[in-house]
Amino acid sequence: PFLRLLEAQLQEQRRQHEEEMEALRNQVDAMQEELEKQQQAFLQTLELSPEVQVEFGLQQEITRLTNENLDLKELLEKLEKNEKKLKKQLKIYMKKVQDFEAFQAMVPAERRQQEPNMQVTVQRKEKDFQGMLEYYKEDEPLLIRNLIT
Length: 149
Prior knowledge:
Coiled coil: 3-96
Largest sheet: none
Structural class: mainly alpha
Number of strands: 0
Oligomer: single chain
Keywords: Coiled coil
Order of helices and strands: HHH
Protein name: MYO5B protein
Radius of gyration: 42 Å
């Protein structure tokens, strides 16, 4: 049983390795094709006259810059959209803060009206205690302070 498990694991690893190798071979083949295309384009450019080479180089640079500009425009649009969303959220939060501040301004006035009522409603039941009280030694300073006050 243990050997079979090891054998199955080994076969699984071998299969994964072969899949990875195949993917890498495909990747190398694609890179070789791209390299060959670039080499052919380079050789063709070398055969051209210097003026045409410069023009070809300029065309490639213009294409590169155009693609870069398109990418930057796309990024700018995303950032502008995000800015609008954040401004909208900021307005919402500012409104909430204003509402909260207004509520806080109202609350102290309401508290002043309710405070006398609250003092009236809080009552203590007085009990008569007789005899000795039991307490912990560490509670003694607290008891003395309470007796004095």
